[in-house]
Design brief:
This protein is mostly beta strands and 386 residues long. It is built from 4 helices and 18 strands.
């Protein structure tokens, strides 16, 4: 049965290849334009959508006059209505290692989103998980963005709040699969630091040479730390640089250093990685490699004699046979994690097929094979945003 299913996936992808066949819906309502202007397919961003988000969710010289109230105060930009949107996902899932099959995951995600302009070149964005995997999750992304901080000629932006450390690399929230980018979620032992959500400040600068720089100052302990928000006195730092080599090739690298001491025992770690994006609007290849080294991730009184090493990454292939006009799209994702903490070792192969019923309504079928546990997982679901 598994071989037949894999063969079917390969056939569908082959057909797609030969046949010519971080924005929210509130922004589409504001500017009276299709979601397709920024997404293809949603939630994946096109270059125009990336520029829109980087510009503080605004279009220069195209802001609708009626969008803001006339208060007679030049220091007040008051939106007539708070822009809101919802993302709703439901799935049916079958997994060969599970006793309960099929598992009706409805809703799998119900997300409340809002974003917009507080003042000229000052914007906000947040979303609240009303339900995630059947439980109340709370706030994840939540930040204020200062666009072009010093001058419109200097493309330097400042973010303050809560965001994903990996956002300057590849955005987990914009991936096309349920299967995650596993290396971003890894936390060896009792360590709290990862490339997932954290609190802090992020500064980005786009140089005229098409080189992008990012500097992040982070709490280093993720979410859910209680009343003080921070688990210790230390702050972590990440630096990232990427270069557009040609219109179809971008390469980048990053470094991360941090220290944590949530109680009487401390850990010190560093991460380094490289990434690549190759392709065009029809075929896009993304690749990420991350190496991590911790002194004492188990937070033991007696520190290990050798550093604990974790490495891994992913390769992702996105296929849109007709570019942004494609209603049928596909993706392949390979995940790999190899750690001295053996319980973190992970290797998976994922294929997905998507059919765009409407610009904001997508039917998705996905198959994942996890090599370590010989697990086969199949999902069929509906993803919508409105």
């Amino acid at each position: 049965m598994k071989k037949i299913f894999i063969a079917l996936i390969i056939f569908i992808f082959s057909y797609c290849l030969i046949n010519e066949a971080g924005a929210i819906p509130a922004f589409a309502r504001k500017y009276n334009m299709s979601c397709n202007v920024c997404h293809s397919p949603f939630p994946k961003l096109k270059p125009y959508g990336e520029d829109f988000a980087a510009n503080g969710f605004q279009l220069p010289d195209k802001e609708p006059a009626r969008y803001f109230k006339k208060t007679g105060d030049d220091l007040l930009m008051l939106m007539r209505e708070i822009p809101v949107a919802l993302r709703f996902e439901l799935f049916g899932q079958y997994e060969n290692s599970r006793d309960v099959n099929p598992d009706l995951r409805t809703p799998y995600i119900l997300k409340f989103m809002s974003g917009g302009n507080i003042y000229k070149d000052i914007s906000y964005y947040f979303y609240y998980f009303i339900s995630e995997r059947g439980e109340m999750a709370g706030i994840e992304d939540a930040f204020i963005m200062f666009n072009n901080v010093f001058s419109n000629k200097l493309d330097l932006d400042l973010y303050a709040g809560q965001f994903q450390v990996s956002d300057p690399l590849f955005k987990r929230e914009l991936r096309m699969t349920q299967e995650d980018y596993a290396i971003y979620t890894v936390k060896p032992g009792r360590t709290l630091a990862s490339l997932k959500y954290d609190r802090g400040i992020m500064v980005t600068y786009a140089a005229p040479t098409k080189t992008d720089f990012t500097l992040e100052l982070l709490s280093g302990n993720g979410l859910g730390t209680g009343e003080t928000f921070d688990a210790d006195k230390y702050k972590n730092i990440m630096f990232r640089a990427s270069q557009e080599v040609t219109p179809f090739l971008r390469i980048g690298g990053f470094g991360y250093y941090g220290k944590e001491q949530p109680d009487s025992v401390s850990n010190e770690m560093y991460m380094a990685g490289a990434d690549l994006t190759l392709g065009n609007d029809k075929v896009e290849l993304n690749a990420q490699y991350v190496y991590r080294s911790d002194i004492n991730p188990g937070m033991t009184q007696v520190k290990p004699t050798e550093r604990v090493k974790t490495k891994g990454g992913f390769v992702e292939l996105l296929i849109s046979p007709q570019g942004d006009k494609s209603r049928v799209t596909g993706s392949l994702l390979y995940n790999y994690v190899d750690s001295d903490f053996k319980e973190l070792n992970y290797q998976s192969y994922t294929g997905s097929i998507n059919y765009l019923i409407a610009r904001n309504l997508r039917l998705s079928g996905e198959y994942t094979y996890i090599k370590d546990t010989k697990t086969s997982r199949f999902s069929l679901g509906i993803i919508s945003a409105f």
